[in-house]
Amino acid sequence: MAYDTILVEQKGAVALITLNRPKALNALNRQLITELLSVYDALIAGGTTRSAVLTGAGDKAFAAGADITEMNGQGPADMAAFSALGHRMGARIETAPFPTIAAVNGFALGGGCELALSADFIHAAEEAKFGQPEVNLGLIPGFGGCTRLVRRVGVAWARELVETGDPISAAEALRIGLCNRVVPRAQLLEGALKTAQRIADRGPCAVRAARDVLLQTQDLDLVRANAFEMTAFGLVSASADSQEGMTAFVEKRPAKFQGK
Ligand code: CAA
Questions:
Q1: Given 134, 163, 229, 251, which residue is catalytic?
Q2: Which of 73, 109, 196, 225 could disulfide-link 51, Cβ–Cβ 3.0 to 4.6 Å?
């Protein structure tokens, strides 16, 4: 399927998804968000994608936020609906049956930072800049910037980023745990794709179950969280893949996972 604002390339079991509005620094308008939801729906329905890399077209931006031109002049009902659309996008990425790595190639501001936070983890180019500048516009983050950011970097940094609106460098983002690694831009995509491929080579049922546990337990107390993990551990051991993985280890051969 062709999209106006997104490029999708299937590289075996890895999907490379590129936000493609470089002239507007890949700003997230309704069309782009709706198309991104469709991309994920199609990849999920296809059933063969085991991991994805999400990046931005051009060398300046991952995404410079929600589209300010489109938001300008809208009333509260439309703005609330836009926020709901952005949250649907974040939830779709976060709860998809496969992980997404955000390869942040430049500005990840406002909705762009929030989109990256919906991914499982973030790799960044040295030139990347992260921030939640909404307060400069008299707004607040609307796509999960307050909620996911605090869970990723803790309340102190979330407060500073959201309340000042100041951007931080990739090096600072690395230091506070917002991104996992920072690499020269020329190596960003190749590295993220390699990591995505390594995930795709693992047992798909196991990767999916592990993501579920990591996501669903993050706000549970330890006793409930551990109970959730124990149940998921038992369930995933019923998969053919887990039998194959353990048998392959014992037989000293590579496992052949089928996602079953
Ligand atoms: N929305 C719409 N258009 C945007 C945009 C955005 N968020 N960010 C950049 N653009 C457009 C610019 O208007 C410009 O378009 P024209 O060439 O037609 O004038 C083009 O992209 C290039 O941008 P600049 O000329 O500004 O590039 P720069 O290198 O001088 O500055 C920048 C880069 C610092 C990222 C600057 O563009 C900027 O501050 N952008 C806005 C960042 C922002 O405030 N993001 C938060 C949006 S609100 C939000 O996201 C709410 C939410 O949580 C849901």
A1: 134
A2: 196
